[in-house]
Amino acid sequence: MSKSKRKSLRDSFLTWQCHVRQVAMRENGGRPSPGMQPQILDEAGAQLVPGLTVLLAPKEPKESTAFLRFQVLKYADPRETYEKALAYLQADYFQTGKAFSGRLLAALPSDAPLAETLLATKRCVLAFAQGRYAFRLPCKVKRLKAHSADREAAIWHNRVFNPALPDTVQVLAFKPDWDAAETKKI
């Protein structure tokens, strides 16, 4: 695939993801929609799980992570944390795909068999579908190290919706192979 086609596919995916996430934040109170929960397939195409909620990794996560962390730590009432953070995510957070790196993140329990499988094989396919669009993204998978910017971004984002998320959670990063990625209208 040429560099321009690869960039076009990546940009189309991120634009679509931002739209899917804007709708989820603005119309569904932040509840993940199917387009935010791809099927996880092995490289042969066998389904490992029917859906896993993934986050878009911001190119510059420092500001949003600091804001979400502050909201989680500031309010004793999880509802107040949720409302303040949701207002932030509803505003312009998902305004443009250019704000995101193209990597996807997922938080899993420390003892999750899925994490063990993905880390052992180091590869999977994320199969997204919602509305008229579907994307298949072959990905490299790795566990993020403690205190990495993407790991912190994923943890504090998830704590807005699940304040009981433990520090021991694993955060996996999925790096798409845009040369092998596919899209189609459905």
Automatic annotation (TrEMBL):
Domain of life (superkingdom): Bacteria
Protein name: Uncharacterized protein
Source organism of the structure: Methyloceanibacter superfactus
